């Protein structure tokens, strides 16, 4: 079992910490999304430096089930003579005490993706925290580092850490911090399906005799859509709200099971451990039989085809969807129990679908995450031609823990871990 904080001495003293249950972050040294992170939230302690002692200390006794939270190691040191982190330890028999004005440092494992929220625009949030607490925040120069240093008196360090914890709690629950990973059922592993989607995109965009690389580099949005019936005036793609950016990259086609925010390596490692731990249970839920799906036609996610935002291919699970949905629930429940799922995602009803067009991907000059009611497209012409399209039947060989915005050599999302699904034994 990991300890909540491992306190390292500098020079002649060591900080002892008082633990209480009033702040929603330090759980066995893990930084999590406060009371909106679902799972084993046994307790949520905070730390406050209350004394300086010559002896070493290590806080233990935290429930091992909390290990899946995002870890915040607080390596602390104190010095009365300006000593820095990592200096030589004092001898065990040195009983010299230090005052509350001594300089202390702690290292918090937060996550590189969260640093920008703690710094704020033009460093405004960092400056505000430092001004209010008197502590100094030191961010790593390397983009791969995930820890920041807080320096100051024991009281100022404690106050600064509390403010940072509350700030991150707010960000994690909001849309400001994007989902970093998700559980996926890969479909892009089937070349014939990828080819069909490329042809679909080319047809809608009016691109002829172009290979996939040429399509990917195209930004045309002024051509006429071919899938409309003949009219006196055929609307342009721009008038229909259609451009290439709203098409899903065929090489990333998948079914989504669960979205996750894993903002540092500790959370990713915890997710991999959970994922691997349910392999046998998932296989049992599928009854040892392979999973095959059919994609038929197109449908609109909410709204009308005239003002569509998401267009997808409905999924039909061969032999009934109960087995697959049961396996997906086992996965979701495991991550919820592990505390890695936001509350709103834990209560989400799963609807398996293969998205082919989504306006959220639309490239705009002013990138914004705010909902735009005018960001839609007219899909009526597309439905006239592809509304009854049979995309085919495909076997799903495995389930992935996928990382968003990172891709492998084949163009699909980077796989952090995978669970093999039963194969068709009749082919053996």
Automatic annotation (TrEMBL):
Signal sequence extent: none
This protein's GO CC annotations: nucleus
Region spans: Disordered: 73-101
Superkingdom of origin: Eukaryota
Domain K Homology as annotated: residue spans: 106-165
Keyword Thylakoid: no
Keywords: RNA-binding
SUPFAM superfamilies: Eukaryotic type KH-domain (KH-domain type I), LigT-like
Single GO biological process annotation from the record: DNA alkylation repair
Domain (A-kinase anchor protein 7-like phosphoesterase) ranges: 179-421
Single Gene Ontology MF annotation: RNA binding
Low complexity bias (residue ranges): 73-82
Entries under InterPro entries matching the protein: AKAP7-like_phosphoesterase (IPR019510), ASCC1 (IPR009210), Cyclic_Pdiesterase (IPR009097), KH_dom_type_1 (IPR004088), KH_dom_type_1_sf (IPR036612)
Cross-referenced PANTHER family: ACTIVATING SIGNAL COINTEGRATOR 1 COMPLEX SUBUNIT 1 (PTHR13360)
Protein name in the entry: K Homology domain-containing protein
Organism: Tagetes erecta
